[in-house]
């Protein structure tokens, strides 16, 4: 909302060109849509399943199917979570559905799930 306020003030006070303001505001439209639709995202870890949801998509996997969970620190210092299955498949959890990585890693280890840390990978 602060970006929208700054753009309005820029047009009114500084007489900024409308096409420049429009170009800046285009990048805020996805966030505005999430606010309008009240998009929800989250993750639930129980003693039997790991489930996550974001927007209209949701998925879950039984803990017995998980080989290990990778916490991958990317070059922009975000931590992505990858669930590696015993079959060799990988499930990348959506960034918006994952909680802070340290409490999640502690919760996984308390359920005897093996975790791995990978630093500065491009995933």
Write up this protein.
The chain has two domains: 2-37, no CATH class; 41-119, PH-domain like. 33% of the residues lie in helices and 33% in strands. It is built from four helices and seven strands. It has helices at residues 2-13, 18-26, 29-37, 101-110; strands spanning 41-45, 49-54, 57-62, 66-73, 79-85, 90-92, 115-119. The strands form two sheets. Strands 6-5-4-7 form a four-stranded mixed beta sheet, with helices on one face. The longest helix is centred in the first third of the chain and has 12 residues, at 2-13. The model has no long low-confidence stretch (mean pLDDT 92).
Short description, anyone?
The protein is α+β, with helices and mostly antiparallel strands.
Low-confidence stretches: none
CATH topology descriptor of the largest domain = PH-domain like
Number of self-contained structural domains? 2
What's the arrangement of strands in the largest beta sheet?
Answer: 6-5-4-7
CATH superfamily of the largest domain: Pleckstrin-homology domain (PH domain)/Phosphotyrosine-binding domain (PTB)
Number of separate helices: 4
**SSE succession:** HHHEEEEEEHE
- End-to-end separation in angstroms reads 32 Å
Class inferred from helices and paired strands: alpha+beta
Please identify, by name, the CATH architecture of the largest domain.
Answer: Roll
- Average predicted confidence as pLDDT: 92
Number of strands: 7
Beta-strand portion reads 25-35%
Observed structural traits:
single chain; 123 residues; alpha+beta; PH-domain like; 3-stranded antiparallel sheet; 4 helices
